Amino acid sequence: MSAALDKCLGCLLGGAAGDALGYAVEFSSEREIFACFGPEGISGYRLSGGLARISDDTQMTLFTANGLLWAQTQRALGREAGFCDGVSAAYRDWYLTQTQRYPLPDRHWAASHSCWLLEVPELYSRRAPGNTCLSALAGFVPGSMRSPINDSKGCGGVMRIAPAGLFFDDAGEAALTAAECAALTHGHELGCIPAAYVAHMVCTLSHGQAAGPREAALGALRDMERLFPAAAHLDGFVQLIGHALDLAESSLAPLEAIHRLGAGWVGDEAAAIALYCALKYPDDLGRALTAAVNHSGDSDSTGAIAGGILGAHLGLGGIPARFLERLELRGVIEELAEDLHRGCPAQDAPEPERRRWQRKYLEIRRCV
């Protein structure tokens, strides 16, 4: 396995692991978590039906990946297709999975869809989808940073954005695309810039441009000031990320450090908490995830973001086996990670290979 594929798999599976670990306690208080799981909190999956269930965080991450690959395939054929347009279409497909039953009624197949993920029955399960995402996608006009759809700075745009860092090999392009993809549903700068920050880190870690999370964090911080020079809330975000960097070097207990960063329900706090956990335990994904989810805030999102960052650093081999076993939709997650690594086949690729790819990303079949 190549190092690049290893990091793609590590990022998406690490993010899903953090999501599944935190989803079990997302709406629990710290008192409830520690009373149920002991003084260390939850550190292993709570299974449902024999599986560690993912939440809407991983669902939307998969649709982000599918949207990027759909747009890449269109562009390879000489068609006009923006990457954010592809992701926007993919999110509308995700919205169908949250509002319809599998298989989709015939009337929904009159329109063009971008996602083969519509053929995965398990993705039609509602896993506490964010109200902001649902309300934004219920309309017909997606948001952008120039024309915000709302003033939400919730973390829903950040928790789903890791595929942008894997897809692009230029960290600046990954960051700007991530910000615009977040703005499809979250209009506040602090709902978008943290997504750019996380995608930038994932990009430099997964493409070997940063030696570790701290180097990636500092590089991303410098680039945020270059990429968003006119942002009104940039200074506050930079200060919060700087605080996370300092806390990771301190002797403060993880839970106390997280309390100083927030609860993670909003984008900047979620990114800061995840960054702190990744920096505190840069070589131990298990301990990082445990720290990231054992608090009263948005546990699955902070776990997902931390897992994606560290997974992009450590690769598949850095994920403890207990977090891979019984992980829901592991095969689908691995398939999209492999496709992100491989990319659309070149025009001189063997015809069967190109046809298989195009059938997958352009010729969406009915759900049956």
Kindly report the CATH topology: ADP-ribosylglycohydrolase fold
Specify the CATH homologous superfamily: ADP-ribosylation/Crystallin J1
Helix content: 55-70%
Poorly predicted spans:
none
Mean pLDDT: 95
The number of distinct β-strands equals 0
| Name of the top-level CATH class | Mainly Alpha
Q: What is the count of DSSP helices, taking H or I runs of 4+ residues?
A: 16
The SS-based structural class is: mainly alpha
Going by CATH, the architecture would be Orthogonal Bundle
Structurally, the number of domains stands at: 1
Approximate shape: globular
What is the N-to-C order of secondary-structure elements (H for helix, E for strand)?
Answer: HHHHHHHHHHHHHHHH
Assess the beta-strand content as a share of residues.
Answer: under 5%
Give Rg in angstroms.
19 Å
Describe, in short, the structure shown.
This protein is mostly helical. Helix content is 58%, strand content 0%.
What would your notes on this structure say?
There is one protein chain. This protein has 368 residues and is an all-alpha fold. The protein has one domain (3-361): ADP-ribosylation/Crystallin J1 (ADP-ribosylglycohydrolase fold), CATH 1.10.4080.10. Helices cover 58% and strands 0% of the residues. It has 16 helices and no strands. The protein has helices at 3-23, 30-37, 56-76, 83-99, 131-137, 162-167, 171-183, 189-206, 213-227, 234-248, 254-261, 267-280, 285-293, 299-314, 330-342, 351-361. The longest helix has 21 residues, at 3-23. The protein is globular, with a radius of gyration of 19 Å. The two termini are 34 Å apart.
